[in-house]
Amino acid sequence: MAMYPSDSPAVALNRRQWFAWSAAASAAMAGDATAQPLLSASPARNTDAERPLVVAQIVDLSLNQQDVSRDFLVGSRSAWQNLNARGGVRGRTVQHITLETNGSPASLQTAWQTAHRQTGCVALSGCVGNATAAALVAMPPPADSSSALALIAPWLHNAVTDSEAETVFEVFPDHQTQIAHAIKTHASLGVKQIGVVFANVQVQQQSQGYVLQVAKSLGLEAQILPHASAKSPIANQLITPTQTIILFVGGTPELHAFVSKLAAPPGRQCFVVALADVNLQVLAQMGGTPKGISIIATQAVPLISSSLPVVRAYRDALGRFFDESPSPQGLAGFIAARYTAEVLGGITGPITRATVLAALQRRADVNMGGYVVAYRGKKRTNAYVTQSMLTQDGRIIG
């Protein structure tokens, strides 16, 4: 596990440099990792009000998660750097610490314990990807930790239970909400049947139930097709799908491998609808989309072309601090950090783990430049779900 402060050059790379770097990073992270100490200690301060606030972010950089996690992390870092440039939180700098993992249980446990043992750390913010966030939700605080850390705005696709919601504070719509939006959109166009493909058996076990439930509620027939990693001869039926709409549940690498096998029947168009774990910018660079195939990605945030103030702020900060193009995953990371900062800034008195947790448990509505987080009890009452399309010629619309 590697640890970096937010001003580290570790991710100050453009996308092409990132692909070269991430291949080497994946190899280095393949074995068991050990925690590194903080790269720099804060100078002694006379009072708590003068000390930086520490916020940690656990990031899964395993091969299948890099395209999502990397953009999400860059979005978060741009938000924290922009915040500090404007004076921080109530005049205090926020020290944003990144704990990079390879997604293995051992590396996650190490990152979890490292965050809790940083005495100045007041919260975990924007932990990514989904499998990592779900594992962190299930982890109890280390035995030697004095208090629990709030898990704020994780990139989490499964709804949390009421007991988990005591320390986990969701911001983004879960998979069920995304799938409902995707299916409802196409049901309104008169489609009566959709194909459904899962990246692998594990994803199918997690998601098939509510996919079928949503489809049934909309009067659609959902035909479950062999999962994308299937090797049996029956998987060959995916080469020429009979469905006009195929819902794909999985990540970017799996989607690219699946789409490369598709061949739309002559004169017909096939639409593959994916969810928020697909990065269309990366998919476009990977290329190879067959003729007659268009890919639609359901996003858990506003469109990056939107005029909402929070989207403009994200694009401005990204352009100021990183040599990057905007992406939905980057905007999500930016929103996760902004939401955390709003909560910290609203606390009266000392900012500690306990006061952060207490402020979050009140679940006050937060409006971040048009992106509103609102709750009824422990459940969100609103969710932003949008869609973008990757055309056959590599253009992204929306």
Automatic annotation (TrEMBL):
Residues forming coiled coils: none
Domain Leucine-binding protein: 55-371
PROSITE patterns found in the cross-reference section: TAT
Keyword Ion transport: no
Gene3D superfamilies tied to this protein: 3.40.50.2300
Source species, domain of life: Bacteria
Keywords: Signal
A Pfam family it matches: Peripla_BP_6
UniProt similarity note: Belongs to the leucine-binding protein family.
Record's protein name: Amino acid/amide ABC transporter substrate-binding protein (HAAT family)
Phylogenetic classification of the source organism: Bacteria, Pseudomonadati, Pseudomonadota, Betaproteobacteria, Burkholderiales
